[in-house]
Amino acid sequence: MIFRARYTFKDLREISGFRLKEISEKTGLSVNEIKAIESDSGEMEVSICKKLSKFYNIDTDYIFIGKQTDFDKKLNDYLGGT
C-alpha cells in the first residue's frame, strides 16, 4: 500500500537538524533509501513511513490525513514557539 504525503520527511529532517547518516543509523534505512524518499516522499511503503514517523515521533495522521492545524501547532511547539 502506498500513500501520498502532505508533509515531506525532508522537511522534518531539516527542521529537526538531523543528518542523513544519523537517521540511517537510528532507523536501519540506508542513506540512499532516505535520499530517495526525501527527493520524492510523495509515495513510499507503509513500513518505511512507520519507521520514519516513529523516528520523528509524529503520527502518520499528521503526514497523510492532513491535520494541518494540529501538525503546525506541534511543530511550532517543537521549535519553541518560533
TrEMBL record:
GO terms for molecular function: DNA binding. Gene3D superfamilies: lambda repressor-like DNA-binding domains (1.10.260.40). Residues 9-63 form the HTH cro/C1-type domain. Pfam families: HTH_19 (PF12844). SUPFAM superfamilies: lambda repressor-like DNA-binding domains (SSF47413). This is Helix-turn-helix transcriptional regulator. It comes from Lactococcus lactis. The lineage of its organism: Bacteria, Bacillati, Bacillota, Bacilli, Lactobacillales.
